[in-house]
Q: What sequence folds into this?
RNA sequence: GCCCGGGUGGUGGAAUCGGUAGACACGGAGGCCUCAAAAGCCUUUGCUCUCACGGGCGUGCGGGUUCGAGUCCCGCCCCGGGCACCA
């Protein structure tokens, strides 16, 4: 008697029982654990290391369908690469700091750690029940003091290296709550989601990471990465490198100040008819004349309540977005005075916070000039017939003094040369990328490990005293203010340098800091005196396949790339390790009612209801089959039907694999012996089934490599259908077995439980399916002996014929012209032209 | 608004390099099996004209390039993601 509860049960496909059995087995046997090589072992290892990583999740409770989708793809990659003979590192952890837990704490008064730990437990369970294969020994949680210690140690190394610094920056301040708000907490109309007060900007001294130091390397590094092109484009645009010039203009009637502007179009300087400075510009006060004070103050007040997104918008009434300062700058190119305006769409964070405005060659400037009735002077001759307003294209310079007659490119260089010769300006490269503001005025994050001492100033916490951990006895006030800021026990400390009373930094780090190095900790989570060992990082990194949502295309992926370079430069990571993720795949999102599925929108569909009914394998198959992995999925009332369909398909595979398939031929001879075919073996049927089998291997392997999971599943369905129809055609037992065996192997990474169970029942003596090698197609079955060629007349399909795959152009055309149906379609007309593209088509043009 | 994507039958989608539009499914229709049902199996299914043979139309909209466009180019419309403190 078998001790196997599943085998003992029944012959019907019982997903829940099968899945529980195999999940336990994978965990108990540590099937997907992989060890780091011992010293000197790397050279002899016969399995090449391969690192598959899904973006670690924020634990918001049980998995949602976005997680299911992500981890299904990741698990497929892990099992597929393992079967291909790689030593696969497949770790998982939790991005466990963040705002939602803190909000929950404020609501209920419970400590965020309690919520977080509960939610991690729920999420873990749903991942296990999905059948995802991880080396759980390597699990990391960002709120674990062991992890925090290293996040803080890294912060200090950055501080030491000049990569972390303090500066003033504005935050969203809610006057009602007396607290800082996240952008998400500010409603579209600029009010606080909690109190409804109008949110204003307020300057605070905060910590930054100097990501801009790496702007060029972040840009150039993209070239070598196998990432989706659109993600690279987004990153390039985000970095926003632009070449131009910076120069200084005198202020009319003043010698105590001057205005420095950045421009990408120094060639247009003769067309400058005004200048604009940001509302935060230090000269605003200086340049504003008494007569203009009222309008300027009114503008500044309005701007304080406007988000950057709205400020950068080209919508909105320009008449309300600018104000004249009353001062004039002198255009150094022609000595003419030009008025200086303030406008909200000029940001202090970019360039010098001041621009020269050339309405003739910039549409935004043109629109502004129209509203404020400022002159427009063309400096580039637009092409013949040009009817637009601002012209920003190529052309010959006009109205531009010594630049007249030059092309735009030449004129740029000449203008910069002139500025340099006058000693008032120079060539300058600017980036849109800004330094990374890492300070958060929150409790549930990793504390920034510094103290402030009256005598010594800012002092880093010594590494031996790390981690700095937030206290447990905290009280959450309904205002949302971080309890750290009023917890005396935490706040008050002694200076590590002089021993006098000092206060701790109460800000915590952006959670993107935690997610910028977790993939390195996974390589070596046991490391006790460094965040990770150089050897382990060198062995596994960079991540061979990173998988996550497209919504992380810019921020997370940019920050992690910055971290990799910075860690390498401060000596924590191997010097040659400059990029963390070699191959990236960005999956689409799950949408419900038109927007992304997320806890905050309340539109979650828990996977557990499927685990208990159709099983995890059916849900996984659905996610693979529903569409291209990169595309968004609309989850609606029809989705359950599709999942049902996947479950029915797996039932078909089960019956085929376990030998209880009902034959497709109806009639009284129906019996369960039908998968053991009769004696009359049809050789053509054998060949046809084996061809299908081997072509499916080739197609599925290729599809898995190129992330076309939906078509891989379709190919498996075709093989399944053909196996069933072969049952009626007298196929040999050997051929049928080869088809079924192959089908199970190809399904193993997709629906691992079903594949494992069916395999074990079919081949009880064999090693488990997931330790089998990935099948390789036999080329003799891949050869094609004839293909269908289309014959068109004037581009319309009129007939189809069988041709040899290597048929020549002339022969194809001849055969096409000889077809009776073509003669009819031609109706006596003489072909003007025959386009012959064998073996695809012949097109006859009359 | 800016940057990046997307739009193909009743539905999800396929078409990998400019060459058969609709693979594979879901749903529908008809049938087999059954006392009946469920399950399973078989056939059929883009729209439209035609008894039929066969024809016409068809990949968001409008233009263009080409023998040929879902695919390339120009201009729109609609939907989604990101926009630096959601993660």
A:
């Amino acid at each position: 008697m078998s001790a196997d509860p599943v085998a003992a049960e029944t012959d019907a496909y019982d997903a829940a029982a099968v899945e529980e059995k195999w999940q336990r087995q994978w965990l108990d046997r540590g099937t997907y654990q992989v060890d780091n090589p011992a010293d000197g072992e790397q050279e002899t290892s016969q399995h090449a290391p391969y690192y598959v990583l899904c973006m670690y999740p924020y634990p918001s409770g049980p998995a949602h369908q976005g997680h299911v989708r992500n981890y299904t793809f990741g698990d497929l990659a892990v099992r597929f690469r393992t079967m291909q003979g790689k030593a696969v590192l497949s770790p998982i952890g939790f991005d466990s700091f963040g705002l939602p837990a803190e909000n929950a704490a404020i609501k209920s008064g419970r400590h965020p750690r309690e919520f977080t730990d509960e939610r991690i437990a729920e999420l873990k369970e749903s991942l296990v029940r999905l059948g995802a294969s991880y080396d759980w020994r390597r699990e990391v949680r960002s709120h674990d003091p062991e992890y925090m210690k290293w996040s803080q140690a890294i912060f200090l190394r950055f501080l030491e290296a000049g990569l972390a610094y303090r500066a003033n920056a504005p935050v969203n301040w809610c006057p009602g709550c007396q607290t800082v708000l996240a952008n998400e907490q500010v409603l579209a109309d600029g009010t606080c989601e909690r109190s409804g007060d109008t949110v204003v900007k307020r300057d605070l001294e905060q910590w930054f990471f100097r990501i801009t130091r790496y702007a060029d390397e972040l840009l150039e590094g993209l070239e070598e990465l196998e990432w989706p092109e659109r993600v690279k484009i987004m990153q390039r645009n985000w970095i926003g490198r632009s070449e131009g010039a910076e120069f200084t203009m005198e202020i009319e009637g003043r010698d105590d100040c001057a205005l420095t502007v950045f421009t990408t179009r120094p060639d247009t300087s003769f067309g400058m008819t005004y200048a604009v400075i940001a509302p935060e510009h230090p000269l605003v006060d200086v340049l504003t004349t008494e007569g203009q004070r009222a309008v300027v103050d009114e503008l500044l007040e309005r701007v304080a309540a406007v988000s950057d997104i709205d400020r950068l918008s080209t919508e909105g009434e320009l008449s309300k977005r600018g104000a004249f300062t009353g001062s004039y700058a002198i255009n150094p190119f022609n000595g003419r005075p030009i008025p200086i305006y303030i406008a909200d769409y000029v940001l202090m964070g970019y360039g010098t916070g001041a621009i020269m405005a050339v309405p003739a060659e910039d549409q935004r400037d043109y629109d502004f000039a129209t509203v404020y009735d400022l002159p427009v002077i063309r400096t580039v001759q637009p092409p013949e017939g040009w009817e637009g307003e601002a012209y920003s294209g190529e052309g010959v310079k006009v109205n531009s003094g010594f630049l007249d007659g030059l092309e735009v490119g030449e004129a740029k260089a000449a203008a910069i040369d002139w500025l340099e010769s006058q000693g008032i300006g120079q060539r300058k490269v600017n980036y849109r990328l800004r330094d990374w503001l890492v300070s958060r005025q929150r409790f549930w994050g990793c504390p920034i490990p510094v103290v402030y001492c009256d005598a010594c100033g800012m002092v880093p916490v010594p590494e031996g005293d790390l981690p700095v951990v937030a206290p447990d006895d905290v009280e959450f006030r309904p205002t949302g203010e971080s309890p750290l800021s009023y917890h005396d026990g935490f706040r008050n400390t002694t200076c590590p340098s002089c021993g006098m009373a000092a206060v701790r930094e109460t800000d915590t780090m952006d959670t993107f800091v935690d997610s910028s190095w977790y993939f390195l900790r996974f390589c070596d989570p046991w490391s006790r005196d460094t965040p990770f060992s150089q050897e382990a990082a060198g062995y596994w990194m960079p991540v061979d396949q990173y998988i996550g949502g497209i919504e992380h295309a810019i921020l997370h992926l940019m920050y992690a790339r910055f971290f990799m370079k910075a860690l390498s430069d401060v000596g924590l990571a191997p010097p040659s390790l400059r990029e963390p993720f070699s191959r990236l795949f960005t999956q689409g999102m799950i949408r419900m009612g038109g927007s992304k599925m997320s806890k905050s929108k309340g539109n979650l569909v828990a996977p557990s209801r499927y685990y208990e009914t159709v099983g995890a394998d059916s849900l996984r198959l659905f996610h693979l089959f529903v569409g291209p992995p990169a595309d968004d999925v609309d989850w609606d009332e029809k989705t359950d039907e599709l999942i049902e369909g996947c479950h029915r398909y797996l039932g078909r595979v089960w019956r085929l694999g376990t030998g209880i398939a009902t034959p497709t031929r109806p009639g009284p001879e129906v019996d369960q012996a039908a998968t053991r075919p009769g004696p009359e073996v049809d050789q053509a049927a054998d060949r046809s089934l084996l061809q299908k089998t081997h072509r499916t291997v080739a197609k599925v392997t290729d599809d898995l490599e190129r992330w076309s999971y939906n078509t891989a599943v379709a190919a498996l369905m075709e093989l399944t259908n053909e196996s069933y129809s072969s049952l009626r055609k007298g196929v040999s037992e050997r051929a049928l077995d080869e088809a079924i065996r192959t089908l199970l192997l190809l399904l193993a990474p997709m629906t691992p439980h079903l594949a494992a169970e069916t395999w074990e029942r079919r081949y009880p003596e064999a090693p488990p399916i997931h330790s089998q090698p990935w099948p390789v197609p036999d080329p003799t079955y891949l050869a094609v002996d004839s293909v269908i060629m289309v014959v068109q007349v004037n581009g319309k399909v009129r007939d189809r014929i069988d041709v040899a795959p290597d048929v020549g152009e002339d022969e194809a055309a001849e055969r096409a012209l000889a077809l009776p149906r073509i003669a009819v379609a031609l109706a006596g007309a003489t072909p003007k032209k025959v386009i012959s593209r064998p073996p695809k088509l012949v097109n006859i043009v009359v």
